[in-house]
């Protein structure tokens, strides 16, 4: 009896904390429903008293292709990141290659480079290889945000996989690649989901790469689509916020579905070490 | 245990394959450099700072039509105006500059300095019918580098209802003293005074210039007594509560949104807000910005220029020239400038505009009296002055420095270039 | 089968078996050597794509940035090339600039304040959500929403909330009788405002990583502790916090590296203003290169490199601490 009311107390506190944390998101929703002339009203309306749906109408008319592109780029980034990061993480965790320590440092340094520096560097490379203004080029660029971190996560997780599991596979005659695919990957499901989550979210909200490298493409992500409402002398804030609200929905759904996997044992190896 | 050498080879092959697929996949015309010869049937790249106009808008269709009239397909990319200059430099570095580009006028001098724009005379473009002071923003070292698509400038919008209620006659606002007095009356009547933009970008400088020039200030000497007077005027308003503190974050759009709430008596804003003014929901009027001791303050010209960047293949210029001529012929100028609510750059089209919309008359006069920011031989010195200037405005209005100290620091920074 | 293969190999290469005495011992050490080389090649094969990727996509931008900072680039030479080598001139210009001191100071404050609060909040929330009450999973997922909003939206929303005239935060303060604060306009508050917004954005990252770290602490330890009569705070101090140390270390380090890079948020909220009251090295670097009408690429790149150097120092520190712990 006591534990049930105790637990309910936690739920209430949890809801309150979440409400405080998400207040700015609520405010975003509020602004998305505010008509232009009330934008700078002082004091502001806490509730959208004169809601207008012109922002959402604009979004549904204009932004769906951008949302689709963002989804495509996000999923592509996830795939590319996993393909690059998982084998490397496995190698650093279990295979002990020469220069593994240096590689670890390199991965850290890779994450220290400011985005605009990367984008400017990529411009020339992308232009020369025909990757400019394309969605697949953007996948390659967005993966650079996620891959080093992904390798670190995989390394940490896979070092926690018991050595017996791998030796058992070896004794059965499996090669390293077979071991990796059939034994290590299935066990690393949580790490895979975590890395996928991070890479998807980072690709979804990227702006610097999209702006520099896909500014003129036919398929552009939602972070650029928003700029449609930011003209040189005019900004339609209700449309901008409406775009953000609509853009958050698919990502939020994915989050709720994936959080179960992210929970358990992502950094398993770190504690054991 | 499989052969590790084979595994290694397989891995390298995968890496190579990924890169190859990416490169091959991009083989189709996804790179931004134009294709085709200078003759008919190629693709020409066109950049402008109007992302609010998509392909189905009047402007988008006009651009496309000018292309097809010249026998080519136009690929139009619009982006934020502050980005455009930087992207142009980056693109030009890689030999990827667009064929025709609209840029905000103070950026022209930077692009000319970088050597990426063609002279209009080299292209054979006729700029004789364009008003000199409007053309002037794109003139560097006596050569013109672009054709203006239209011009705009600043004035004071006022809310008739508030002024009547506060017993202020707009005709009485003739100089700074009378303006401040009017603001005082409005405040004691319970409303808010004036809103403008003092943000730390070129917009902030743009809005500060009428006051700076209205005091007789000279951009090469920011910390003269005249400059300090102008900055002190703004500071006095903010400190006295006649202007809101958030002018430091306001863009010209958010400043307009404040005015549109109906709480403010005055707003310093531009020609392009005329369309919004009609939607404001209260009767409004327009007066020119007063000079310190009377008369109209000199105001800066705004507006974009159509430019033709340098290309490796000079046979492309023929078509680019046709596109530019098409965009800037009288009929198209009238349509475009009506959409953008800019003042046309030629007297003939201006007359047509005023005939259609008499409200534009004072604006036409204002533009005629306006000055280019990069004119008077300033050229690329202007950006090195403008940035310290907006920083000084920010420092003074936020209370970080006194107006004199702020402008002294600005003059030192501008001197260093 | 393996042994048979080894024997065949040792028969094929009699020269090897010479120096070390009996044939049997030779083939064993041979086998070890070959296995080691085989496994090393395999390991190399697994990380080869990553190495190629790192070299192509990180080395090149780094090199270009270094080049930009070591040469005297004007807009003309940026476009056309042939910029003269200028050594450390750009760095000297940057260090002499009056903005350098404030930018450095603000970077330190911004970074450490952000990380401290993000970490503390993330940890507290992780521990809280670890209690498995109803809706814990859903609420925890909802906490990640700030992270998936495009930065222009989050930053703009916070700007609006902080607006001194029509912002909801000043309105709330007004309701409890506190006079309005010039969050974004005053040199005293501008930095605080961007720190607050940055903390909000950074909490989800800390929450996710720390929460997963918590999952690895065996529940039995807590059960044993509560049987011994330890309270919640003691359990935290004695069990949770120490066992979480490696995860905390990596979270803090990554938090530091990511926060040093933060520029979008500050740029959208204040552009480093008013004046340079909220300028950090990251925003200053951008402003020099892209925030004016006449870009100064050299100094901009120099500031960028200084930023990377600072991050590198902390990275090396982390590795040294980690190595000492493992030893």
UniProtKB/TrEMBL annotation, chain A:
Q: Which PROSITE patterns match?
A: ABC_TM1
What does the UniProt keyword field contain?
A: Cell membrane, Membrane, Transmembrane, Transmembrane helix, Transport
Report the domain of life of the source organism. Bacteria
One Pfam family from the record: BPD_transp_1
Domain (ABC transmembrane type-1) spans 67-258
How is it placed in the membrane, per its record? Answer: Multi-pass membrane protein
Q: Where in the cell is it found?
A: Cell membrane
Q: Which residues cross the membrane?
A: 12-29, 71-93, 105-126, 138-158, 179-204, 237-258
List, alphabetically, the InterPro entries matched: BP-dep_ABC_trans_perm, MetI-like, MetI-like_sf
Q: SUPFAM superfamilies, per this entry?
A: MetI-like
PANTHER family according to UniProt? INNER MEMBRANE ABC TRANSPORTER PERMEASE PROTEIN YCJP (PTHR32243:SF18), MALTOSE TRANSPORT SYSTEM PERMEASE-RELATED (PTHR32243)
Concerning its family, UniProt says: Belongs to the binding-protein-dependent transport system permease family.
The name this protein carries in UniProt is Carbohydrate ABC transporter permease
Say which species the protein is native to. Streptomyces hokutonensis
């Amino acid at each position: 009896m006591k534990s049930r009311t105790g637990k309910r107390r936690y739920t209430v506190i949890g809801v309150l904390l979440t409400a405080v944390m998400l207040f700015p998101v609520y405010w975003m929703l509020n602004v998305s429903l505010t008509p232009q002339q009330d934008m700078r009203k002082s004091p502001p309306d806490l509730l959208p008293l004169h809601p207008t749906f012109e922002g959402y109408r604009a979004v549904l008319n204009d932004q769906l292709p951008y949302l689709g592109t963002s989804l495509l780029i996000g999923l592509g980034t996830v795939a590319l990141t996993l393909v690059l990061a998982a084998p490397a993480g496995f190698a650093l965790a279990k295979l002990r290659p020469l220069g593994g320590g240096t590689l670890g440092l390199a991965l850290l340094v890779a994450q220290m480079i400011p985005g605009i520096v990367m984008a400017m560097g990529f411009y020339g490379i992308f232009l020369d290889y025909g990757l400019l203004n394309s969605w697949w080029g953007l996948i390659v660029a967005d993966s650079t945000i996620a891959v080093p971190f992904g390798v670190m996560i995989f390394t940490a997780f896979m070092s926690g996989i018991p050595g017996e599991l791998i030796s058992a596979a070896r004794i059965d005659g499996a090669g390293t690649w077979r071991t990796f695919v059939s034994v290590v990957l299935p066990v690393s499901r949580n790490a895979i989901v975590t890395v996928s989550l991070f890479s998807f979210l980072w690709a979804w909200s990227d702006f610097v790469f999209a702006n520099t490298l896909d500014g003129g493409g036919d398929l552009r992500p939602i972070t650029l689509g928003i700029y449609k409402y930011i003209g040189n002398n005019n900004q339609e804030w209700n449309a901008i916020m409406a775009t953000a609200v609509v853009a958050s929905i698919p990502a939020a759904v994915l989050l709720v579905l994936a959080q179960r996997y992210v929970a358990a044992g992502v950094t398993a190896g770190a504690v054991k070490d | 245990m499989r052969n590790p050498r084979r595994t290694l080879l397989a891995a390298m092959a995968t890496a190579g394959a990924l890169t190859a697929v990416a490169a091959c996949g991009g083989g189709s015309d996804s790179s931004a450099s134009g294709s085709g010869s200078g003759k008919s049937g190629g693709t020409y790249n066109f950049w402008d700072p109007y992302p609010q106009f998509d392909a189905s808008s009047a402007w988008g269709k006009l651009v496309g039509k000018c292309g097809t009239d010249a026998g080519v397909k136009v690929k139009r990319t619009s982006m934020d105006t502050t980005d455009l200059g930087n992207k142009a430099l980056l693109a030009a570095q890689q030999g990827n500059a667009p064929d025709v580009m609209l840029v905000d006028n103070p950026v022209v001098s930077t692009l000319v300095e970088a050597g990426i724009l063609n002279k209009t005379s080299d292209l054979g473009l006729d700029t004789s019918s364009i008003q000199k002071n409007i053309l002037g923003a794109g003139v560097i070292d006596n050569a013109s580098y672009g054709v203006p698509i239209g011009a705009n400038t600043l004035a004071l919008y006022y809310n008739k209802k508030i002024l009547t209620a506060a017993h202020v006659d707009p005709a009485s606002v003739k100089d700074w003293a009378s303006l401040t007095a009017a603001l005082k009356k409005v405040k004691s009547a319970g409303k808010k005074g004036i809103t403008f933009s003092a943000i730390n970008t070129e917009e902030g400088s743009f809005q500060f210039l009428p006051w700076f020039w209205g005091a007789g200030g000279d951009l090469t000497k920011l910390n003269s007594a005249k400059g300090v007077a102008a900055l002190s005027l703004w500071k006095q308003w903010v400190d006295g509560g006649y202007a809101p503190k958030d002018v430091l974050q306001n863009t010209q759009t958010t400043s307009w949104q404040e005015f549109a709430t109906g709480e403010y008596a005055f707003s310093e804003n531009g020609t392009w807000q005329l369309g919004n003014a009609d939607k404001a929901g209260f009767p409004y009027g327009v007066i020119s910005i007063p000079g310190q001791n009377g008369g109209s303050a000199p105001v800066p010209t705004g507006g974009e220029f159509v430019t033709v960047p340098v290309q490796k293949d000079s046979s492309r210029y023929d078509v680019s020239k046709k596109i530019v001529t098409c965009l800037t012929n009288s009929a198209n100028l009238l349509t475009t400038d009506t959409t953008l609510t800019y003042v046309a750059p030629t007297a003939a089209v201006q007359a047509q505009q005023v005939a259609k919309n008499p409200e534009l008359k004072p604006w036409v006069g204002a533009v005629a009296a306006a000055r280019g920011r990069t004119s008077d031989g300033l050229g690329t010195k202007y950006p090195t002055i403008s940035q310290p200037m907006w920083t000084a405005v920010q420092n003074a209005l936020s209370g970080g420095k006194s107006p004199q100290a702020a402008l002294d620091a600005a003059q030192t920074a501008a001197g260093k270039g | 089968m393996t042994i048979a293969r080894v024997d065949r190999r040792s028969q094929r290469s009699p020269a090897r078996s010479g120096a070390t005495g009996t044939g049997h011992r030779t083939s064993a050490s041979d086998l070890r050597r070959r296995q080691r080389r085989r496994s090393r090649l395999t390991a190399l094969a697994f990380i080869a794509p990553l190495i190629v990727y790192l070299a192509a996509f990180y080395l090149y931008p780094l090199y270009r940035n270094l080049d930009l900072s070591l040469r005297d680039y004007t807009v003309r030479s940026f476009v056309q090339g042939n910029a003269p080598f200028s050594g450390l001139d750009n760095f000297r210009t940057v260090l002499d600039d009056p903005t350098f001191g404030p930018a450095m100071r603000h970077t330190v404050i911004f970074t450490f304040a952000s990380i401290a609060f993000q970490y503390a909040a993330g940890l507290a929330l992780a521990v809280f959500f670890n209690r498995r009450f109803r809706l814990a999973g859903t609420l925890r997922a909802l906490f990640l929403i700030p992270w998936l909003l495009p930065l222009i939206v989050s930053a703009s929303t916070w700007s609006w909330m902080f607006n001194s005239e029509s912002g909801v935060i000043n309105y709330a303060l007004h309701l409890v009788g506190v006079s309005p604060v010039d969050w974004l306009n005053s040199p005293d508050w501008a930095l605080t405002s961007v720190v607050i917004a940055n903390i909000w954005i950074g909490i989800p990252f800390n929450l996710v990583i720390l929460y997963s770290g918590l999952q690895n602490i065996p529940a039995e330890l807590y059960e044993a502790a509560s049987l011994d009569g330890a309270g919640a705070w003691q359990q935290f101090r004695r069990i949770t916090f120490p066992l979480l140390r490696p995860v905390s270390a990596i979270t803090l380090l990554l938090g530091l590296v990511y926060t040093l890079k933060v520029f979008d948020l500050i740029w959208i909220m204040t552009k480093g203003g008013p004046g340079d009251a909220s300028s950090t090295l990251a925003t200053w670097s951008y402003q020099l290169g892209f925030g004016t009408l006449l870009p100064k690429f050299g100094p901009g790149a120099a500031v960028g490199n200084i930023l990377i150097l600072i991050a590198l120092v902390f990275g090396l520190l982390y590795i040294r601490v980690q190595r000492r712990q493992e030893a």
